[in-house]
Design goal:
Bound molecules: zinc ion
Shape: globular
Structural class: mainly beta
Number of strands: 8
Radius of gyration: 16 Å
Helix content: under 10%
Distance between the termini: 36 Å
């Protein structure tokens, strides 16, 4: 199956909801934030409001070290869509890179500029 048209996603408004409010607030302050479940200790990035493991409400946050790794990726045209994960945290961040070669496990550094998150290859 091939997609032959453009998807006009720019015309839609994405509502963050309360779950990602802290995540984007952190980015605007130049921080990567994670949620920590005080009941089971699970840490989530990006932030969550409920723990997926014990279903309790999460209110605690912590700043995450900016070093992550590529968990998986796919290449298309000259771009690479990567899923970046951080040691000790559930979840991950999708990001698009261009003009780079990656492999699973490649170390990346999170770079936050004007509230926007991107990743720099470190290997
Ligand atoms: Zn929990």
């Amino acid at each position: 199956m091939k997609w032959k048209d453009d998807m006009e996603i720019d015309g839609y408004v994405y509502t963050l909801g309360i779950g990602l409010h802290n995540w984007y607030k952190g980015l605007n302050e130049g921080k990567l934030l994670a949620s920590i479940c005080k009941y089971c200790g699970t840490k989530y990035i990006p932030t969550r409001i409920y723990c997926e493991k014990c279903l309790k409400k999460i209110e605690d946050l912590e700043e995450v070290n900016d070093m992550g790794y590529i968990h998986t990726y796919t290449e298309y045209c000259s771009k690479v869509l990567v899923l970046v994960k951080f040691e000790g945290y559930e979840g991950g961040i999708f990001s698009e890179l261009e003009g780079v070669k990656v492999r699973i496990g490649t170390k990346v550094k999170a770079v936050i500029s004007n509230g926007t998150l991107s990743f720099k290859i470190m290997e």
